[in-house]
Amino acid sequence: MEQILGSDWLISPAGGTSGEAFIAEKENNKLFLKRNSNPFIAILSAEGIVPKLMWTKRLSNGDVITAQKWMEGRELTRPEMQNEEVVGLLSKIHHSSEILDLFMRMGKKPVSPSAYLIQLLNKCKKHDMLENESISQATRYLSRYAQEIDNEKKVVCHSDMFHENWLKGEDDHLYLIDWDQAIIADPALDLSMFLWVYVPRDQWSEWLKLYGLEETNDLLARMNWYLVAQTISYILWHIDRKETEKVNQWIQFLQEQQFIYRKY
């Protein structure tokens, strides 16, 4: 990083699991640096979805460094995730043709439920998790309905809807950060975990109206499917990081939500 900014900048790790994010400080200037972040960060910045992109530079080894304006702020609390401002931003992202077009011009292809499932199954096999009774039951459910719940409408999904990624800036602007897991998929992928974790069940219909959808059996079935799929994905993610406690928590979540294995 020093070769880009110079030795008069103080550079320190920004935390996170990737080890590719840094904070650069010099006098009153402060930047958030990221190595090989998603290239569509520019349009997200232009749309006001992430903090302002200052510059992008390519290193001699091919790595790309992006610098964003450092935004002092705080992550949203769990109750704040129900605010209309949050549903408004998520709806804006999912309904943005500009973001979707750019993502597709980068060569990204829509991911069907069947393709998503194949990736999960391969990872499960790698970690010998198909022998786990809860995982085995869940993957049978996913396999049974993968083709049936496929939806033609695909959008750019963030894929990590937890409140830690929603930043309320010092400018009182709301941002959604950390786009490393973004894919083109059914919007139900984002909606499922978001609604399940943060919105009481009796408020889903009202929340979805604000978002721009009607609560239907078809939508509920798709969200159920992606809730199971994402839970398995989180289990595998924590296995990779040897976070046994988190693995057990997500397996318990899968076991406790047995009623999701149904077709509306």
TrEMBL record:
Pfam families named among the record's database cross-references: APH
Source species: Allobacillus salarius
Boundaries of every Aminoglycoside phosphotransferase domain copy: 16-216
GO molecular function terms noted in the UniProt entry: transferase activity
Lineage: Bacteria, Bacillati, Bacillota, Bacilli, Bacillales
Transferase listed as a keyword: yes
InterPro entries: Aminoglycoside_PTrfase, CcrZ_PhaseVar_Mediator, Kinase-like_dom_sf
Name by which UniProt lists this protein: Phosphotransferase family protein
Keyword annotations of the record: Transferase
